Amino acid sequence: xxxxxxxxxxxxxxxxxxxxxxxxxxxxxxxxxxxxxxxxxxxxxxxxxxxxxxxxxxxxxxxxxxxxxxxxxxxxxxxxxxxxxxxxxxxxxxxxxxxxxxxxxxxxxxxxxxxxxxxxxxxxxxxxxxxxxxxxxxxxxxxxxxxxxxxxxxxxxxxxxxxxxxxxxxxxxxxxxxxxxxxxxxxxxxxxxxxxxxxxxxxxxxxxxxxxxxxxxxxxxxxxxxxxxxxxxxxxxxxxxxxxxxxxxxxxxxxxxxxxxxxxxxxxxxxxxxxxxxxxxxxxxxxxxxxxxxxxxxxxxxxxxxxxxxxxxxxxxxxxxxxxxxxxxxxxxxxxxxxxxxxxxxxxxxxxxxxxxxxxxxxxxxxxxxxxxxxxxxxxxxxxxxxxxxxxxxxxxxxxxxxxxxxxxxxxxxxxxxxxxxxxxxxxxxxxxxxxxxxxxxxxxxxxxxxxxxxxxxxxxxxxxxxxxxxxxxxxxxxxxxxxxxxxxxxxxxxxxxxxxxxxxxxxxxxxxxxxxxxxxxxxxxxxxxxxxxxxxxxxxxxxxxxxxxxxxxxxxxxxxxxxxxxxxxxxxxxxxxxxxxxxxxxxxxxxxxxxxxxxxxxxxxxxxxxxxxxxxxxxxxxxxxxxxxxxxxxxxxxxxxxxxxxxxxxxxxxxxxxxxxxxxxxxxxxxxxxxxxxxxxxxxxxxxxxxxxxxxxxxxxxxxxxxxxxxxxxxxxxxxxxxxxxxxxxxxxxxxxxxxxxxxxxxxxxxxxxxxxxxxxxxxxxxxxxxxxxxxxxxxxxxxxxxxxxxxxxxxxxxxxxxxxxxxxxxxxxxxxxxxxxxxxxxxxxxxxxxxxxxxxxxxxxxxxxxxxxxxxxxxxxxxxxxxxxxxxxxxxxxxxxxxxxxxxxxxxxxxxxxxxxxxxxxxxxxxxxxxxxxxxxxxxxxxxxxxxxxxxxxxxxxxxxxxxxxxxxxxxxxxxxxxxxxx
Length: 969
Hints:
single chain; Anaerobic Ribonucleotide-triphosphate Reductase Large Chain; 28 strands; nucleotide-binding; DNA synthesis
């Protein structure tokens, strides 16, 4: 990477920015207001047990989670591990970045006085150390080091119809991949395979050149990168090779399927997957309004020669649209980018059209350009009274957008062309994370009018404030170089943003308050922009926020809803613990539930992973806790409508994938693509569960289903050869109880109703039979309970685990219910609820019960005294050996190991985390926990660094174990 562009001396038109302290306190450095602690960071590959990283004694604030400190230490600390040059404190990391920004701002005339520069430094430091925002990863990697000062994660390249340009594309893309970033480009200038070369021969076409670029990306990835090479390939819908482009990855999926059936290892990362092509890029078709209208009308559409622009082939628009949707149904590619919408919001049309995007599809700008990103943690701006502090949010945006613009003054770029365009147009990408958690905490459903209006108002305020500050900076250090040429177009787009803000329909007090500030911000944008112009050609995008989302301890990434209501939390002493999202108790309190009801609902969620039938939860509140996956998964159009609410207030686009169930049809995908166009989105990507063969699943769910479907298809074809296959039938075997067995009889009272339960066990102590006595002999109730007892007993003897019965029958609600005479189960929602809680206490181990959230009175008392449900550990002998109490096995990690974390908003309020049961040590990420709770597979790749299953983040994937991402953020 080479520094190719210098901004030169500052073009000072005013006296510099006059700044006020908002977050920090005069006379107190932000670090001095924080309690710091030392931690040991040891990272292992959870699949192999191999230690992949170790640094002890690192320094972090006490409120930073173990996960956040681990990811920052492993990803962002610079210097060789084990040497004095290695960074060991978050203070060093933040100082390295912030002081570089402050010095550059001073050198280039951004601040009125040295005092203003100091305020800028302290405010930026406070915001970062308190997790209010984060720059994108390249800033933390490079700024303030001896490396080139690359600050951008997103790049757009260009390629022309010449061999020199094509080979240069391979070269530039390779250098960008080598640095761990990603790039996108449009191949539509390359003539099609249906056109002639100047020599008279036939052209190869862009798809053939994609093979070379794909192989290059795969080689660079396998050469040592910690994540896949992220790239985007775009082709215009009127290119003559469009059908070949659309089907490239779908045909490769057929190849994968055939090779898998032949016995080759075709899982992602498998030994034989490298024989498959086009797997290192996301593909998108750039569609026009003309094409989409032809699809609606059912008319023909012309494919045009690249050189002359003449129509050389006519196709049926609906047929082509169907092929695009069919391919997406089969392999999730291609996505769509809506060309006319993108360029209608383009601030620099006089310089050139927008033809492509970065790999995650949020950055859309000129060819040979780059964008540096930063994202705010929205949940930090939610006050004690559950109102959004819009004024404080606005102040934070002003500081952050100023810092982002300063970074271009000292940044280095991978190519001269990219450097020149970035300096001339100064594209920025401010965005946010934790929207899903914020809406939940405020009691707003993600797929609701209230949720969308709140999201629209916040996004409008963010971008309006950014452009207002951009206009103020233009008055101090001058507008961007390309502004004069594009002034009318830029101001037209600002008026479009303002008009979109004016039609936002506010539905409650909160979004009304935010919208009022946004309206004023856009008025200031128009006024100041007319006077000063603008410092930046673009200001905002919504990125995936993968790694930096973990750095800020966010529950949700980017614009995404919550992935799951339960997740794993890393513990200080090692291991992990399952917790219910800390946002849920806050949301329930906001909705008016009492403490006892909240505890019951949280316990239910920790056991089941969803809110359906949670005790005491009103059905009208279910939508607030809808997630991306699971029993209450959001409908595909819920994702699309949320994107449409935010899109009019973004300079760029949104990195997000619309998830569809495996049962989704091609027609449903067509509808998502069509409605996305009508709602004004700039890009849409879809993913249908289990549509890819080459995905490593934790169980055989996806592959087994695919195998079954393939077999059904082959069986329906005419048989070529008759084969005799021996049919093997597996049947459960009944394990009968011995003639003489140990049993226990328990008398109980539930809500005043008396009864008796007799349970018998096998010689190994496993429960084998249950008899229930309720009501008089001969009564209907007694007969029903006898039949129920026999059914349960036979099921137990045929191998149905007791924990399955416990999970099904606990929390079952009917009368009689209420107080019991059992000290271990003081309250019961029904007789069934009591019986199976008692059986769990009598016959399940502590570990098994803890996974179901069932504890004895002694264990609950121990938790109040020690913070742990675990059996006590005693210290015996001169060697002080730790001896576990023999009553029950201990889990892999205890609640007592949980790091105490308090998240505070701007008014110092505390939001406590709610621990659920302890993990067994098998599931290590939220994705794996989701699979365990629901029995369904998460169709995500395994992390190349630590081997755990990643989870979706925007249109990319992110690893919760080490913070690695599959994309460019």
